[in-house]
Amino acid sequence: xxxxxxxxxxxxxxGALVSPLTAYALFEQCLDFFPKQVIPxxxxxxxxxxxxxxAIYYSPRDKKPIYTVExxxxxxxxxKHPRRSNQFYEEARLPANERALLSDYRGSGYxxxxxxxxxDMFTANGMAQSFSLANMMxxxxxxxxxxxxxxxxxxxxxxxxxxxHELFIFTGSVGNQGxxxxxHITIPSSLFKLIYDPAKNRAWAYWVDNTNDAPMMPPIxxxxxxxxxxxxxxLPLNQEPENSQSPHKVGGWYPVFFDRDSPEKLQAIxxxxxxxxxxxxxxxxxxxxxxxxxxxxxxxxAANIPIALIQATPPNFSAIQYDRNRVSVxxxxx
Length: 334
What we know:
- This protein has two domains: about 15-245, Extracellular Endonuclease, subunit A (Extracellular Endonuclease, Chain A, 3-Layer(aba) Sandwich), CATH 3.40.570.10; about 250-334, Hypothetical Protein Tm841, Chain: A,domain 3 (2-Layer Sandwich).
- Helix content is about 25%, strand content about 25%.
- The strands form four sheets. It has a seven-stranded antiparallel sheet with strand order 1-2-3-6-9-10-11, with helices on both faces.
- The protein is of the alpha+beta class.
- It is built from eight helices and 15 strands.
- It has helices spanning about 1-20, 75-80, 100-105, 125-130, 140-165, 220-230, 265-275, 290-300, and strands spanning about 45-50, 55-60, 65-70, 110-115, 135-140, 165-175, 180, 185, 190-195, 200-210, 220, 255-260, 280-285, 305-310, 325-334.
């Protein structure tokens, strides 16, 4: 009799672990994180994980998020923030064969890149939970610590603080350029962050290549993101405003980083300038005077717009190691 009970118990546990593995997530305990409590649609099978301040649709195959979602209010970000924990941990709610492991990232050459940023967390539990490996993706180090932190995550937080109303933020990654660790965590080729502002009936997304030298490009439209990710976020947009992807509305400029002379990046800037939508270009540098002056000369000769050459030492910030030889070309739009 006891053996029979044990067998039944094992079957019940197995059923509980297997049943959530579906392309139809439930998120029964955290529907309030989603606009109108409507969950995105995707053909990718995953597990829905609810946390105190965010939710994750997790891929057991890729061992990283398919997407994460946050429901942000200005007061959450303007208040006192909990201390950053930095205690990464393996997600015990996942079956052992579906978890990312701490050892998978060691020596891999990739950072444990947050999908839901620790900087968005406003409770101690949320901060601690944001370091679950279920919230991580293998991310190129300079991408994670540079362009993603400074030109995606921080501008999103600043917009949330200024907006004065609720926002919904989806973050994720797509593509496959290999894997790391014994668990074979998929290295994504591209990263995205979708911002939905219900008060203004607007949505736009950042799209960044997962490389150390990825250029920062203008935000893309909501419809473009759906085509790239094959995820329908079901945002209740009555009608997407014309040019809602335009970076004017999220800052009016975007940076392109140069570690060396790059004809491809230079041509991309010039092509944009030739459309008549570029108002000014600023070239900021710290130590690499030669490259900065070379870029100023090349852009000045080919583009009939003002070029400003500015030497600037980046601020000290313990979480980011700056490449002081990098030159940033800031493209200001009309």
